[in-house]
Amino acid sequence: MEKVLLKNIENPRSADIDEYKKAGGYRSLSKALDMASKDIIEEVKKAGLRGRGGAGFPVAMKWTFASGDPKFPKYLLCNADEGEPGTFKDRPILEKNPHLLIEGMIISGYALGAEYGYIYLRGEYPAAKGILNKAIRQAYENGYLGDSVLGRKTKFHLAVHQGAGAYICGEETALIESLEGDKGQPRIKPPFPVNVGVFSKPTVVNNVETLANLPYLISIGGEAYARIGSPECPGPKIYCVSGHVERTGVYELPMGTNLKDIIYTHCGGIKGGKKLKAVIPGGISTPVLPPDKIDCPMDFVNMPKHGSMLGSGAVIVMDETVCLVKVCYRALKFFEHESCGKCTPCREGTGWLRRILGRIEGGEGMDGDVDLLLAIAGNIIGKTFCPLGDGAASVVQNFIKHFRPEFEAHIKNKGCGAGQTSI
Amino acid sequence: MFSEAAVREIQEIRAKYPTARAALLPAIYVAQREFGWLTPEAYEAVSDLLGVPKAIARGVGTFYAMYKQKPMGRHVVQLCTNVSCMILGAERLVDFLKSRFGLEPGGTTPDGRFSLVIMECIGACGTAPAMLVNDDFYENLTEKSIEDILGKYD
Hints:
The structure holds two protein chains of two kinds. Chain A contains 17 helices and eight strands. Chain A is of the alpha/beta class. Chain A folds into three domains: 17-225, Rossmann fold, CATH 3.40.50.11540; 236-319, Ubiquitin-like (UB roll); 324-413, de novo design (two linked rop proteins) (Up-down Bundle). In chain A, helix 2 packs across helix 10 (214-220) and helix 15 runs parallel beside helix 17. The radius of gyration of chain A is 22 Å and the shape is globular. Chain A starts with 16 loop residues before the first helix and ends in an 11-residue tail after the last helix. The model of chain A has no long low-confidence stretch (mean pLDDT 97). Chain B is of the alpha+beta class. In chain B, strands 2-1-3-4 form a four-stranded mixed beta sheet, with no helix packed on it. Chains A and B meet through strand 3, strand 5, strand 8 and helix 14 of A and helix 2, helix 4, helix 5 and helix 6 of B.
């Protein structure tokens, strides 16, 4: 498959506007501005483009809601708060292909009638901030951004807003709170951001990878785009693979590539010829899979049928040497740290789960601890404003579902001999 | 009080938003750079300049992990220990920083050279274990490479 999102990233000057234009950049923007905005939304609908942030919501539907709201101005927010552990798919776009994102944002802004855009960039990507700010400056100088995009009536202004280290701001309403200058605590929905979003105006929040698909989608048209990858959710997808494989990294492949092929063909299999123990397929919040369950197409429709989720496409591969109690403990330590504190089940529950997992890991687990973990997890799921609590509880449930004997053995044998963790 | 340059910088940031309040996060970044860390005076300066109540400025400032609530060393080592880094040896690196540099998580060396902050995923999972020293990424870390890297920072 021709590279779309990671095109030219080997070129050391790929982030520069001249290089981008040389490779055909900003031509889709001209084409889009010749189209009626509703026709762009129609192409996106035909393409079947789904949001790449994790939820897989149909993009055209979100845009239709926001463009149909009579309030102005409208806002387009790019979610570049890539924080789901295991995920590093947006970073190459932000650092190496910033103009692809910017062109995608201008096209999207025009389609939904938004005149202002912000890129909400996580604080942990300081290099990307400089690169994006430079790219935005170049786009203004070249007439792609401003009060008159390419000399036409279309107006689009864009700025980077830097986050400051809060996973929860990847949730769209927390992101909006944070952009407005508040703590990143999610809002209850409805109203949805498409009607009442940032500064109380209609707002679309789309992931970096989603927006970066737009220039290509417009250049080849929705029908041709829909023929790439899975029929139910087409397009190119960046899978990012970490852990115990021979070749970790980012892989741009057709959506729906089989998880087994990603690990064994593209990444060269398990490092050092060791045995596979477990795979987290879509970032830490998605259900862990044992080795006999990884023969599944990696897309939004098929992964749930195989007991997990596509999430961000962040594949974490663990070999036989890994203690899964420790991994589960570390995951819960993360969720406890990142819980915003708004909902009691998540604020109290994540810490409680972490403490129990810590004592099991440290060799001080008690009879009944595994059932206690499940009881607490069951009291978090579905009882919080946002999916952070669900994610934390589901991690515990799925680790126990597939690897319960390892947890029981930890309690019985007072640990696994790997020693208490220092983290 | 902010320097004149910082006031100008915050005013430029303010112009990118429809409300002054939206400039709060970037203004806190400027404040911690100006004051070294978020002293009571730093919050007061932000609050005065943007017209945001002090309690709000402090409440927002303390919510986010990357704002410095206490004095830090000259160089901030931000080591990721989340799952992808952990399974590739981040724990050993935490132990090494303790034994070789006397650096405890959340602590600062007595000479004020380094502070260590344990991070939650810095998006370098494919090149784990990884850390940021100030604004610079370092990846595929080992005890040996950490020793060499930190040697470059006075």
